[in-house]
Structures are given as C-alpha cells and as structure tokens.
Amino acid sequence: xxxxxxxxxxxxxxxxxxxxxxxxxxxxxxxxxxxxxxxxxxxxxxxxxxxxxxxxxxxxxxxxxxxxxxxxxxxxxxxxxxxxxxxxxxxxxxxxxxxxxxxxxxxxxxxxxxxxxxxxx
Amino acid sequence: xxxxxxxxxxxxxxxxxxxxxxxxxxxxxxxxxxxxxxxxxxxxxxxxxxxxxxxxxxxxxxxxxxxxxxxxxxxxxxxxxxxxxxxxxxxxxxxxxxxxxxxxxxxx
Lengths: 121, 108
Prior knowledge:
Distance between the termini of chain B: 36 Å
Helix content of chain B: under 10%
Oligomer: heterodimer
Strand content of chain A: over 45%
C-alpha cells in the first residue's frame, strides 16, 4: 500500500528557506500516471496548492508562490522535495505532500499526514 | 488568479440531505473534485471527475455539475459526516490547481 511521509524542520526563522521532503513508500514515484504535489493549510484556514512535479521533473507552481518555490524530485530515493524561500509568519502552516492524477485528472487521492512548520524567530 | 467559491457553512439535521456548492468560471472545462477533512486529519477524496466516487466512499456521497457550478450532495447525513469540505479544480489552462475556501458542514 503506497504511503507518503513528510519530513523536515518544524521551525524556520523569518527570511530563511523552508525545506521539506516527502518520501514515497510501497510504490514507485516514477509511475507515468501520477504527479506529486505539495499543499499547505495555515492554522484554522483552508487548503492552498503550492505546486506539483512529474517524475521527469516537469513542474507546475501556484502563480502566487512561484517566485519563492522550487519543487524537485529524486527518483533514486523515491522522494520529492519543497523549498520555499524568504518565509514570513504567513507561511506558518501544516504542509502536506500528496499524489495526484495527471493529464486532466488533477485530483489528490493519497495524502501524507502533514507536518506543521512554524515561522518564528 | 482563479478562484472557486463555496458557502462558509451548511447545517442539516441527521437523515436530511446536505448540498454544498462550488462556483468557478472554468468548471465547464475542468473536472471538479471534493475532499472531506475532519479536525487534525489529512483531507480525503470523496468525489473525483465531478461525480465519480472512489472505492470505500459511502454511496450517500454524490456529485453533479451544471455550468459554472458543481454540487456535492450527501444524502441521509450522519453525525460522522460533520467535517470541512473542499472543492478543487484547475484553471482554464489546466496548469494551475485551486481549492475552494471550504464549507463547514454541521450536523444538528
């Protein structure tokens, strides 16, 4: 059974770069049928899509975050990663990694448990 | 930027039917998806491609689409259905995904 697990620091200082990794187990990240994405949720607020990546490295980013976001994939480790630069308190959120369909079917059918990242000095 | 609009809250009594709407200009072109999220948990996909139900999701959950509005219907609402519900779709180009603001379903 495929599972996703987020990992990374739970506390990041303002102006620094937030870095998270999602490890995929029980299946291959190199499947041609799926994209892999990051979604976040500030405390008490709604979901926000950050961006998604294909195993080949092709990416889509939320236009509102594009200037600060980099998503990469390491197929040898079955992982994909998120970097968000110049963070502020507004970036405090639970960050989820998730699997999505592709090619017009952009639903997220499998999610990690999420990890809380707090931006504070 | 593209937006999907949901009502902030919907309330129903047990056994009644709950309908949650989601509006967006690109919905005639792009599929809509629905997620259920309970406190402290990751979202769960309950409807995909406007009206398809993933395996393991109860039959009381259904979806429909009409023009720029999609609707999640929960028939015979149960107490366990109390949760936040989010719609999700893509912009007209299909290159940017977006979630609606979420609807809190309260079972009275």
